[in-house]
Write a structure and sequence with these properties.
Helices cover about 35% and strands about 25% of the residues. Strands 3-6-2-1-9-11-12-10 form an eight-stranded mixed beta sheet, with helices on both faces.
């Protein structure tokens, strides 16, 4: 008998009809002889609706109270799903993140898991129950309710799969797997049968929203095989694991991210310690920096640009208002009209010229590159957000990543 962890996203449990269909899928797994642990997200747009209500009261709600508020969505989903499974004649037990033993640090809104104590889950499995856990949440080392950040239910599922030594973790969503590009932009994008953890990490970091980046990092560290599947059909999905036969293509996919902004600190003193002062202050605010570019120095002064998530701009602006005069810079600017496009593929290591081909395509389309960053298997460019769909389609075509069918039909 195998032990499987299944995670269902918000679109999969968006209403009671969909919850019933998810319950039927869980029951089929149980009747096939599997022990099943399920992790659920909040129904549909519940989290966004709760966040909007809080922001009607204040633009910067107190983080502890926000975590208490936002975890309500997953608790509703877990309870309704447990009710549905029980109604089908199979015993189910639902647990909040804290009841399930998800222990986190004390960072509200972006807490990290520091331990998983799955005693209650193991007891319920031994009793023959389907275990249903609220995703996205845990309890801190100081006994406060915490949330794991956007997409945190993926991380909950992977952490539980590692803790209970599951055979694999299924991530059910509204797409059939990992594609060579966003099918909404490239209708003939091809579904991949398998990708490595390394490639999936780069895709997730570059804007592919199918999996939360931290969940992939956790899965690689704990060697938890993942499979991304649709909750609306029985297609096989995409496996993410090591030790599998990877496809021969140089490029695995094109990812894009239009959720970042470019911040430029103008006329910064070009001397030791200034960059450290800037980015230590940003890090202390819990703001993730992606790409960084420092211009050539003139007369001992330079401009420094970096990208951050748009969602972090209120905190970044508050920080910059006092940081800029402290470091004796002139000013700062924020540009929200950018997007990032990335090519990802392990085959790049042994194939020179990939970057040149990518830059050629953008030039042919009349698209200007504002920033560039690379790793051994990724090339990323910042361009204007108005050009992102055109860029994705052109690069996807240049590297012949298309499948034979229109997946958007």
């Amino acid at each position: 008998m195998s032990l499987v962890v299944q995670k269902y996203g918000g679109s999969s449990v968006g209403d009671t009809d969909r919850i019933r269909r998810v319950a039927e899928r869980i029951v089929r797994s149980k009747e096939a002889g599997h022990d099943v642990v399920v992790v659920v997200s909040a129904m549909g747009d519940t989290t966004d609706d709760l966040l909007a209500k809080a922001q009607e009261l204040t633009p910067l709600p107190e983080p502890r109270e926000m975590d208490l508020l936002l975890t309500a969505g997953e608790r509703i989903s877990m309870s309704l799903l447990a009710i549905a499974v029980n109604a089908m004649g199979h015993k189910a037990a639902s647990y909040t993140g804290s009841q399930a033993g998800i222990i986190t640090d004390t960072e509200h809104g972006k807490a990290k898991i520091v331990d998983v104590r799955p005693g209650r889950i193991r007891e319920a499995l031994d009793e023959g129950s389907v275990v249903i856990v609220a995703g996205f949440q845990g309890v801190s080392t100081t006994y406060d309710v915490t949330t794991l950040g956007r997409g945190g239910s993926d991380t909950t599922a992977v952490a539980l799969a590692a803790a209970v030594e599951a055979d694999y973790c299924e991530i059910y969503t509204d797409v059939e797997g990992i594609y060579t590009a966003d099918p909404r932009i490239v209708p003939n994008a091809r579904k991949l049968d398998a990708v490595s953890f390394e490639e999936m990490l780069e895709l997730a970091a570059s804007g592919a929203r199918v999996l939360q980046l931290r969940s992939v990092e956790y899965a690689r560290r704990q060697n938890v095989p993942l499979v991304v599947r649709s909750s609306f059909n029985d297609e096989p999905g995409t496996w993410i694991k090591e030790g599998t036969d990877m496809e021969d293509a140089i490029i695995s996919g094109v990812a894009h991210d239009d959720g970042e902004a470019k911040v430029t600190i103008v006329n910064v003193p070009d001397k030791p310690g200034v960059a450290s002062r800037i980015f230590r202050s940003v890090a202390d605010e819990g703001i993730n920096v992606d790409m960084i570019v420092q211009n050539v120095s003139h007369d001992g002064r330079t401009d420094m640009s970096f990208t951050v998530p748009v969602a972090d701009l209120p905190r970044l602006r508050a920080l910059a208002d006092h940081l800029v005069p402290e470091i004796e810079a002139d000013s700062y600017t924020v540009d929200e009209g950018i997007a990032k496009i990335s090519l990802v593929g392990a085959g790049m290591r042994s194939h020179p010229g990939v970057a040149a081909d990518m830059f050629d395509v953008l030039a042919e389309e009349g698209i200007n590159i504002e920033m560039i960053s690379t790793s051994s298997i990724r090339i990323s460019c910042v361009i204007r957000s108005d050009d992102i769909e055109k860029a994705v389609r052109a690069i996807h075509a240049k590297f012949e990543l298309a499948g034979t069918e229109d997946v958007s039909a």
